[in-house]
Predict the structure.
Amino acid sequence: MALPPERVSVGVGHEEGQGLNKWEGYVNWRNKPAMRDQHGGMLAASFVLVVEILENLAFLANASNLVLYLSKFMHYSPSSSANIVTNFMGTAFLLAVLGGFLSDAFFTTYRLYLTSAAIEFMGLLTLTVQAHTPSLKPPICASASTEIRCEKVNRQKAAMLFTGLYLVALGVGGIKGSLPPHGAEQFDDTTPQGRKQRSSFFNYYVFSLSCGALIAVTFVVWIEDNKGWQWGFGVATAAILASIPVFLLGSPIYRTKIPAGSPITTIFKVLIAAVCNNCKSKSPSNAVMGMETSPSSYITETGEEGNATEVKVPSQTLTEDLEFLNKAVTEKTVSPMLQCTVKQVEEVKVVLKIIPVFMCTIMLNCCLAQLSTFSIQQAATMNTKIGSLKVPPASLPVFPVIFVMLIAPTYNHVVIPFARKVTKTEMGITHLQRIGTGLILSIIAMAVAAIVEMKRKKVAIESGLLNSAEPLPITFLWIALQYLFLGSADLFTLAGMMDFFFTEAPKSMRSLATSLSWASLSMGYYFSSVLISVVNNITSIFRNTPWLSGSNLNHYHLERFYWLMCILSSLNFFHYLFWANRYKYRTESTAD
């Protein structure tokens, strides 16, 4: 039976209203269309911020003090312990790229977080069991003397240690690759208000990282040093387990981006098509054809060039940047599988243009790697008392953490609004300006670190404690200076990178692009290990002992290593300026 006309119009209006209320390309946790009035927003993102506190607590509780656990209880040398920690953390952050790829291509960020948290839980549980069971660790050294070599962990026990560590690394990688984009996707980037809230989210994401780190480097490190490592690992295990129900509490209001297939496939398809078509057009027989197949500014809905009988719609025009890739758009390709649209080519251009910025941040993260390795070992040789309170060396990061927790809200609520008024722009301070500020602070930090190490060694020589394991008569607060500068650099650079990569990347590649922030950290940690090895190999040629070798840190030439990093950081900054001055923001390109 036909409905009356008025009822038909009401039904159509209701359907149109529902269509307008839907978030296109997003679903809720039940895989049903996400609604604008029910899903997303700052409340949904706030669950992500709380979860990040717990997750970073679990990760940094052990990573910040791991170098001492490896040297004191697993009996690795200081340089070996430093390399193990940098490789572990480097792998964890590099696996964030895998997490970002899986989020964009196959899984939702929602499901990937839950899976990754379960994996990290299993890794921490393995480490807890090993730390609790004496038979799974090497025997305790009979003497604290540096002249007696302790028995290093054997193969079976080392296998358990590294299994636990790299399960944690796999879980952390999945979480870092899925959680930040999951929070950022809760905001509407088509409105100025949504974009401002997203920028605030990234600032508070770094704030949440610092909150978790504060608990990790104070409470948990104190437990590890005074109650035992099994309790420290246990707290970390409980924290990651607690993060799962907290994350699930936000399920009814999350909006989750629908995976759009492999972004890496698109990138390779455009690159291969561009190479093939450029080679094809260079041959004389194809010269005329190359002119005929130049892309037009109009395409049909199927991505093919329009003809007289087809309805044409305006398309995104090819830009002159990276003109080599424009050849990927043509009627006659080598293979139908290599048929590319203008949109795909322009998206790949964006990805390629942000790669140099990514590469320039690796050196800064190489400097940050020193915070969890040599800086802690330096502090362990110094007087760690503040009055009657003895502070564990691994709690040194508390200084930059507190500083970040103070400056992050100030930056978001004072500096940015003021900058917006002065510059009359939406961002106020651009992403690249933030990253550049962080690079400058890292240069200062390495110079300070070198000067402090020279002072520390001078005290060791003057007090006759160069070959002693006794604490030096110099306060460990001197080391806090380099932590302060590097912590500030991390605040500016990490939040700037995440916002930059997420904002500039195509929508189908946002998780993968955001994970480049963590990949930069990873490359920094790996580069630190490589740099230490290269420095030792080169210096051993001219000296009997390398700069960074042996069990006694007082015999290291750490100050020379820090000066080297200061010089490399300065050269890297000029390299960054070259690319930053030539970068054109995606929004500017669109407006032009």
Notes: The chain has a mean pLDDT of 80.
